[in-house]
């Protein structure tokens, strides 16, 4: 046996391509689209029910999230405790969430208990009660959480930033106010459920120990259900390029820290420059060794953490820098952030730094492919944009071939300082 020489670093090998677990796509008897990604050695299943029912589709704030949350709070057959206990007894785990575009319900379960767990999921999806008492409890709890959040500078800055970027009239910028909680009505929630939680507006993604029995179980539960034949009315809307406030300060007297959000609208993952922008934002603030972390945290000691990123939505995208700093060093932190942006526009990234970021991104991508559940997430991240796995291999190719000259060009094109919106919440 050859002993390892631990004084020598292991040989470096760069990721070339990723071999993906290909999804198999079928339809249940009533036409519901079912994707399956089989893999792994354990008897575990993850099943996502994904609806076109995110924030984008609501006419008033809070409706999409309230509808998704109340689904599990009682059905015609079970109350909320029955549902929780019923799923728990099989060692299964249930979660639900809403993002800007989609809403989802996910179960993790041993494959041998799938039929038992699906009995509860069927009740949640098809027969929610939307009980008046549960709704009142949800609304009161939400109001209290909102009041608590209103005391946090990070919450204030994040909401104002979204409103400034998109405008209140655009769905992504329609931020809730306290009166929206009070005006929230069960009638609107039921209407949203009727319009967007029909099974014709759902795709199912199963991953893990998937086999023909998985399909049969889902088909037995949902394939015979009557679904709408007319298309769901999905709104289209264009961001109105109105004059934005480029600098906004939200006064929070007595706050010891200031929350900073800086950013702008950016192309989403359908745009050819998206990969290059991802690499650029990683250099600036996308990992622990990034320039913003080295300067603002390690060198100046203004914050515990600072980062930036590029968020892709179906109907837009945006870039953001986010941090909280001591109130007394707010202006100094802002100056250092803009200094780092300008350096990206004027000085080439060294080969050493660029190689480090390339290896970080490739390793991170490889880590995100670990197992069928993560593969399913990768599939969902591109499928609902009309893309496929070639997206990731194109990303790998861009990471491997991008040059310092290209990064300077991208930084000058997309990160002009006077094009950025700056929001600070804290004590002036």
From TrEMBL:
Residues in Peptidase M16 C-terminal domain copies: 183-360
Lineage start: Bacteria, Pseudomonadati, Bacteroidota, Flavobacteriia, Flavobacteriales
Gene3D superfamilies: Metalloenzyme, LuxS/M16 peptidase-like
SUPFAM superfamilies: LuxS/MPP-like metallohydrolase (SSF63411)
Species name: Vicingus serpentipes
GO terms assigned for molecular function: metal ion binding
Protein name: Insulinase family protein
Source species, domain of life: Bacteria
InterPro entries given in the database record: Metalloenz_LuxS/M16, MPP/UQCRC_Complex, Pept_M16_N, Peptidase_M16_C
Positions of the Peptidase M16 N-terminal domain: 68-151
